[in-house]
Amino acid sequence: NRFLPGQRGLGRNSDEGIYFALTHGDALFIVLDSVHPSREQTAWLAETLKQAPRSTRWRFAFFHHPIYPCSPKAPWAAGLPWARLFEQHRVDIVFTGHTHTFERTCPMARGRCRPGGVVYLNSSGGAAETRAVDRQRVAVAGSDRYDCREILAQGIGRWHHFCRVALAGDRLEGRCYGDDATDRPRVTFRLHK
Fold first, then answer.
1. Strands 102-105 and 161-168
2. How far apart are CA 50 and CA 103, in angstroms?
């Protein structure tokens, strides 16, 4: 609230978290508060996904803590109820931060690569000291055991970067750029519906 006062009017803003959803074109954007998770927020997420207009071809979620990190940071197991809702309601990409790495998973469900699953994209190489990616990590997030050798589609550590995602009908294209002042992306990825 102190740094982004404009969010106050976008949705829920209480001790149970700051969270909201909006649609733009055929995309649904859901912003969640992983610092203050609550039953109320999870119930709101379930209802928001259930009531999403059928015209929303794309579904995205954004929050801070990654559920399945391939870095030294601990998995955010408290997010598993959200992960189950993302899987059930076919969220396309979950964007997170916190680890100061770039990590993109395969489409996942219950900690494993599965067709039609959810892609987790951690893009957090912006301001602070960046960290290494641990491709050999095997970890447990609550009831989900995951192996980074299996789930990590792309991982780059120690890289200051930003990502741009563009939608065009049934195609999504992501491009991630470093701070090396070139106009060519170091990472590209695509999803097709």
1. unpaired
2. 28
Number of alpha carbons in the 13 Å side-chain half-sphere of residue 88: 13
Q: Is the pLDDT of residue 160 over 90?
A: yes
Angle at 115 between CA 168 and CA 178, to 5 degrees: 50
Region for 181 from its dihedrals, namely left if φ exceeds 0, alpha if ψ lies in -120 to 50, beta otherwise: left
**What 3-state DSSP class applies to 167?**
strand
Radius of gyration of the chain (CA): 16
This prediction's pTM? 0.95
Measure the CA–CA gap between 86 and 57, rounded to whole angstroms. Answer: 14
C-alpha 128/C-alpha 79 separation (Å) is 24
What digits encode the pLDDT tens for the residues 128-143? 899 999 999 999 999 9
159 Cβ contact partners less than 8 Å away, ≥ 6 residues apart: 101, 102, 125, 130, 178, 186
- 19 neighbors 31 (Cβ within 8 angstroms): yes
